[in-house]
Design brief:
elongated, six-stranded antiparallel β-barrel, 31% strand, alpha+beta, 391 residues
């Protein structure tokens, strides 16, 4: 039997042999029906199933499978659509996995992170300027005049000069010959005043002597206080749950842009070990920005000094001890006095006293309002330079 040509013409003027009212499929069906009539009666076809009533439609198996696959595809799209925020990205072109958010920070910042060794002490540092300036912790450097740093995991150790140490902020500044290790990759300092609890952070360092290691977490607290190597307090410290351990000291705590929000300096430990228990502390980047110029010049950082130890009190900060020979003793402050204000600003706890004093310079006079025996008085106190260590 000869297949008739199709007369269906599509919108482009082309013949389509399988479409239209004269398609091959229709011609074949009509031919078979005529042949059957010539051969005699045929058994009637079973009646079609009645159509489902509205509201009770059922999917045939093929459509059900299609619907299930479509739902699965939509769920995968929903998950993958949030991967960038979760730090997991879909595979890149060519089948290689794309770097996670932490991976991108590590790739960008790790070339600027160095291992630091000063005598027996080991720690971490980071490049702060292309001229060879490196920032680390004061407790890593100690009293050393020189140190050695290593760039990369397989680089050689190069000599570094200790330019300045500030035990009050636990920061130190080194310098290497900028041509001794190829092109240096400085890390930018973030505005640490804008850091908030919950911000994602990455720590890069050399814990336990291991080569550059990245750990990640969040900012778990801000405005903390820790003890500096000179015995005084460092305020506005950043707390993180990113695992940091011995050897991370002096290394950067980075935000998702790869900028330094703090310098890892201490950890809280539990039991008899010295490993991480999920609480670490970093000196804020704004403190680095504050002391860096003077330390690069080899200058000593001088801070204002009042000379009292206080504890919380319902009216302010109760003086527990007055250091002999201090500005507080000279002004007439005594143990038992309750400081309720400094320069007209109310004091609610000892932190308020420290913050108010730290906004001044040695030699400035401040007005301290104190209560003694129910009587309030205002005393003028000329601040001195903080001693090298707590008396």
């Amino acid at each position: 039997m000869t297949r008739p040509p199709s007369l269906w013409i599509d919108r482009n003027g082309n013949r389509d042999p399988d479409a239209g009212p004269f398609s091959a499929a229709r011609w074949r069906r009509q031919t078979l029906e005529a042949e059957a009539r010539r051969q005699g009666p045929v058994e009637p076809e079973p009646p079609e199933s009645p159509p489902d009533r509205p509201g009770r439609r059922r999917l045939v198996p093929g459509l059900a499978l299609f619907a299930a696959l479509a739902a699965l595809a939509l769920s995968l799209v929903a998950v993958l659509g949030d991967d960038d925020q979760a730090g997991v990205l879909p595979a890149a072109a060519g089948g290689r996995p794309a770097p996670t958010q932490v991976g991108r920070v590590y790739q960008a910042a790790s070339p600027g992170v160095v291992s630091v060794q000063a005598g027996p002490a080991r720690g971490t540092g980071f490049v702060a300027d292309a001229d060879g300036t490196i920032v680390t912790n004061a407790h890593v450097v100690g009293d050393a005049q020189t140190a050695q740093v290593r760039f990369g995991d397989t680089g050689r150790m190069v000599d570094a000069e200790v330019l300045g140490i500030d035990a009050g902020s636990d920061l130190a500044v080194l310098r290497v010959d900028p041509g001794s290790s190829g092109r240096l990759r400085p890390l930018a300092l973030a505005d640490s005043d804008r850091v908030r609890v919950g911000d994602a952070v990455v720590a890069i360092g050399h814990p336990f002597g291991l080569d550059r290691t990245a750990t990640a977490g969040i900012v778990s607290g801000v405005g903390r206080e820790i003890q500096a190597p000179d015995g005084f307090q460092i305020d506005e410290v950043i707390q993180t749950d990113a695992p940091i351990n011995p050897g991370n000291s002096g290394g950067p705590l980075l935000d998702v842009r790869g900028q330094v929000v703090g310098v890892n300096t201490q950890i809280a430990t539990g039991g008899g070990g010295n490993g991480n228990v999920g609480i670490g502390f970093a000196v804020p980047a704004n403190r680095v920005r504050e002391v860096l110029p003077a330390l690069r010049r080899g200058e000593r950082i001088e801070r204002p000094y009042l000379g009292v130890t206080s504890a919380p009190h319902r009216e302010g900060a109760e003086i527990q001890e007055v250091t002999p020979g201090s500005p507080a003793e000279s002004a007439g402050l005594r143990a038992g006095d309750v400081i309720t204000g400094v320069d007209g600003r109310p004091v609610r706890d000892p932190d308020d006293v420290a913050k108010a004093i730290n906004e001044h310079k040695p030699g400035d006079e401040v007005q301290v309002e104190a209560s003694r025996g129910g009587q309030s008085r205002v005393l003028g106190v000329e601040l001195a330079a903080r001693p090298q260590r707590t008396p």
